[in-house]
Amino acid sequence: MMKNPVIRFGIILFTICFLSAVFLSGINLLTKEKIAFQKYQAEQNALREVMPETAEFEAVKKDSQTLYYKALDKDKNILGFCFMAYGKGYSSQIETMVGMSKEGKINAIKILSQSETPGLGSKIAELASSVTLFEAITGKAKKDEKLKPWFEERFSNKKIDELDKVDVITGATISSSAVIKSVKEKAEEILEEVKNGQ
Known about the structure:
The longest helix has 46 residues, at 5-50. The protein is extended. It has helices at 5-50, 133-138, 150-153, 173-195, and strands spanning 56-62, 65-72, 78-88, 93-101, 105-113, 158-159. By secondary structure, the protein is an alpha+beta fold. The chain starts with a helix and ends with a helix. It contains 4 helices and 6 strands.
């Protein structure tokens, strides 16, 4: 039996850490494909949400990485473009799917991922509801099937040069500014890519 408690506790701690690492690695291997599939499904659903009139989405790739999607009608005519915009919020990276017309007008946006502070930065993904407190308490509230986050609605039908006029959210200035800036910069980049024949 070891007489030095430092060595004994060190071995115990090493064993616990080693077993935890093996366990977490195993869980990661088991769930990796499922997580990737769910992310893919969320992206496909977001594409349909930001460009609902599209019949088919054609990925434009560069070095096996998707730059953007061409939104095509049933006759293969380009309706617009969809792309992911990434912005650094207050406490996380914010991933946004954007649908844009050929002329550079934002059709809609959908925030796919954010881990901003609840009640503050997370307001960028809060739903706008017309339900009153009385209706909610009494249970008389009607279910609204088409409810969308109110911040996302501010982008609809805005040209790229009008995005600077989208109001930031009080208490969530960094998060909302990150979305506005990332959408504007990526939209300009995509239009430039399209103009150059990419």
